[in-house]
Design a protein that fits this description.
The chain has about 290 residues and is α+β, with helices and mostly antiparallel strands. The chain has helices at about 20-25, 75-85, 140-150, 185-195, 245-250; strands at about 5, 10-15, 40-45, 50-60, 65-70, 90-95, 100-105, 115, 125-130, 200-205, 215-220, 225-235, 235-245, 255-260, 260-265. The strands form 2 sheets. A 9-stranded mixed beta sheet has the order 1-7-9-8-3-4-5-2-6, covered by helices on one side. It is globular and about 60 Å long.
Length: about 290
């Protein structure tokens, strides 16, 4: 049961009598669908439908919610929430003394939350506070994320640059397409139902170590046509966000995909049910 504290994460506690209603009308997740003992992917979007903040959200007490977010985005996130507060009975608190612990591959300790971004067999969990043996390494945690196609802002993509579909939030429960309006909902819903998503997170593997700098261009060798960008890299594996139509064309034409001259293989996460083709690989809900 490896686990470690993630020093680059903070908790923002959203609480009050209107907290659930406030968040339901603001973020991508269906608040009513969050069960006790679960942490769900979520995002606050720009009006244009791109991810402004990405975080995990879980229930806390009778009326509260914990938002597990990048530490360097915490203050901006609270300021943004405050802009929407108006007269709502809701408060925002930064819990800087509460460590964020990630664990995987074993029985979760008491009080842990299942990280629903991962398939159940990954046994991934979050714990806010103490109470776990911390024997995991960051490289091992990133390897788990790579293996299951779980991307995070900063390491894998820039905020305000991607849509939820690009980072598989339409597949991991981070976006609800039936709950009603929220910021950016119209754009995201139209993209989903028209099947116009073109970028997706993939796992990338090579025979030799890959460049370790995020943002390294992944290109098709013939003509050097750009396909996407690398994110988190651990040895011979990495996450990347790619144009699926361009990858499909390259595969059909048997054109090599390379990163700085290194041949690579791309795969979509099994749990998504997606496959490469000439268009959007998603299947809109009916």
């Amino acid at each position: 049961m490896p686990a470690l504290i993630l020093p680059d994460r903070n908790i923002v506690q959203v609480d009050g009598g209107d907290a659930g209603h406030f968040l339901q009308n603001l973020i991508t997740t269906n608040i009513d669908a969050i069960k006790p003992g679960e942490a769900h992917a979520s995002a606050l979007l720009t009006p244009q439908g791109k991810i402004l903040f990405d975080f995990l959200i879980s229930r806390s007490g009778e009326t509260g919610y914990c938002c597990d977010i990048r530490a360097d985005q915490t203050d901006d996130f609270i300021r943004r929430l405050t802009l929407y507060k108006l007269r709502a009975a809701v408060s925002f608190d930064k819990l800087t003394e509460t460590p964020v612990i990630a664990g995987w591959d074993g029985d979760a300790p008491e009080g842990a939350l299942r990280d629903t971004r991962f398939p159940e067999d990954a046994l991934a969990w979050r714990l806010y506070g103490s109470g776990s043996v911390l024997d995991g390494e960051l490289s091992a945690w990133n390897s788990v994320r790579i293996a299951h196609g779980v991307a995070e802002s900063g390491a894998d993509f820039a905020l305000s640059d991607v849509f939820p579909h690009d980072v598989l939030m339409d597949k991991n429960g981070g976006v609800d397409f039936r709950k009603g309006c929220y910021v950016g909902q119209e754009v995201v819903s139209r993209m989903h139902h028209r099947g116009t998503a073109r970028r997706r997170v993939v796992t990338l593997t090579a025979e030799t170590d890959l460049p370790a700098d995020p943002g390294t261009e992944l290109s098709i060798r013939a003509g050097e046509k750009p396909v996407g960008n690398l994110g988190t890299t651990i040895g011979k594996s990495a996450l990347a966000i790619v144009r699926t139509d361009r990858v499909a064309d390259a595969l059909a034409e048997k054109t090599a995909l390379t990163v700085e001259g290194i041949p690579v293989t791309l795969s979509l996460p099994d749990w998504t049910g997606l496959s490469f083709n000439s268009g959007d690989p998603s299947t809109p809900d009916t």
